[in-house]
Structure formats: C-alpha cells, structure tokens
Amino acid sequence: MDFTNKVILVTGGSGSFGSNFIRHFLKARSPRRIRIYSRDEHKQADLLSDEYYGGVLDGFIGDVRDKDRLRRAMEGVDIVVHAAALKRVQACEYNPFETVKTNIIGSMNVVDCALDAGVEKVLAVSSDKAVAPLNLYGATKMCMEKLIINANNYRGKGKTKFCCVRYGNVAGSKGSVVPAWKELSVKKIPIPINNPNATRFWFDMKDVVTFATGVLEQMDYVSGGEIFVPKLPSVKIMDLFHAMFEHQEFTINGDRVGDKLHETMILADEMKHTIDLGDKYIILPQDPHWEYVPIKGEKCNGRPSYDSGNNSEFLSINDIKERLSKIG
Predict the structure, then answer these.
(1) DSSP per residue, 110-168
(2) I need a labelling partner for 100 at 20 to 30 A (CA). Which of 108, 125, 289, 319 fits?
C-alpha cells in the first residue's frame, strides 16, 4: 500500500506504542500527515519539536472519551491506529469506572467517529489479556475487540474496515519487567518475581511496529473483522532474570490479582475459525453480517491453544541477552 498521500491518526500517539509506531513507521513510509491524539501535552510537545519527524506531525490534545473532540480530529483522516487505553492491570482493578470509560466507551467513540468521517481503515491494538480475561483490563480489551470486529456491521455501503492486532507484553516498553527490573537493580533492591514458572512471549517494539504496519497493508486485501496474531518465541521468566543479572537477589511474591502463568494469544475454541499463514495467525470473524470473503490459509481447527507455555520455540539465556542488547 502507498501511504504517501494518507493522513494517519494515532490515538494514544504519545504513549509507548504510539510514539514508537510513529518513529519506526516514518523510517520506511512517507505519509502526508500523522496526527497524534492524546492527553499528554508535554509528551506531544517533545514529539512535535523533534527534528527527526520533519514537521509531518500534528498534535491534537484530546481524550478518546471526548467524542466531539475525537470527531474533529478525524476530519480528513484516512487511517486510524487505535492504541489509547488504560493498561496497567493493578491500576485498572483499583479504578474500574475510569478503565471502562477509556477502554470501552472510548473505543465506541473511535468506531462512531471513524464511520462518520469515512475513514478507510481502523486498526485497534489489543492484548493477550483479552483472551479468557482474568482481570478488568483484559475484560475491557475483550469488549474492545468485539466492538471493533462487529463495527463492520455498521459501515453499510461505506468504506471503513475495522481489524485488530493482538499481542502480549512488549519487551522494554514502559511498565514492562525489563525497565522495572533494571531500575530496582540500580537501587540494590531484590527483584520481585511473582511466579518463577511463568512464561511470556518475546516481542520488542520494533517488531510490534513492523507487524502492525504489515497488517495495515494487508487490510487492503481482507474484508474486515479479522484479528491478526504474530508467531513469536517464548521466554521463561527465570531465564529472563538470569539473562539480565549475574549477582542479583530476588524474592518470590506470588501471583497478583489477574496474573496468568502463561500468555495465551489464541484459545483452542478460537482455532476453529483461525488460519495459519506461516508467519502469523488470522482469527476470522465467526458470524459476519457484512459482505465477507474468507481468507485462504491453513485451517487450524483441532489445534490446542497458542500460548507461551506450549510454544514450540523458546529463547535460550544467550538468545535473550542478544535481544536485550538491541533494545538497550
């Protein structure tokens, strides 16, 4: 797809995903404009003043809860990347009303405004925690996926396509264990580990952006309503610890509310309507009421859940060290 004349709006554009998406996207693409839509004026100012972006950015101070402001920001927009969300699991548990307002009501506003503005594509960023959710954050992301997928029912003869990407924790992102553990080690504080038997998928921010960009391109050839899931290697949490530290103490704290032993990207029941394209899975909508042409690929019916514990590829400690060196 040629992005040259496209105007892209990124909700949550000054957050970890949004800012990294914009930076990596501009390394290989030259859109007409990128609009940052977020609440943080200071982070927006940092992005807008960065000469790297060559004046291609516009800063819209706003919240996805504010439908009127969001509608104004979407005027003339071709593509929306919806990344705005409250994400910290424990904070979401403590602030459930605020989480629902942003992650669910905010996503409804994105859908309505995109339909009203005649946006071509909406790509929403989801999470493994949306799969059989054990915490409020995951439950709101599950609702977000349902809203985005079934928004295709409302486009009528309009052109807007809605799809999702689903992935797990991003190595090195704000709030993830890598920077948190580094900060604690500097303070000479024992590293808290919730469950030493836990596993996680490994996905760094550059790979996230590359995957999302590829999905935006592939959306030209799908009918809408698909959830795109990358194939990733897994890491054992204790292997990650030993890859980061040689002489560092740790404590076992036990699972917190909503913690999972493994990250699950696709349930076995979802495999019934999932196809395997080699480098990724695509979960197809189960009962589309819009004009839908199924994607061709290897059917996954009968496969077990795709999770970080039963994955076929695990990174060794040396592999993890090498990847850590690339994210700083």
Answers:
(1) HHHHHHHHT-SEEEEEEEGGGSS-SSHHHHHHHHHHHHHHHGGGG-TTS--EEEEEEE-
(2) 289
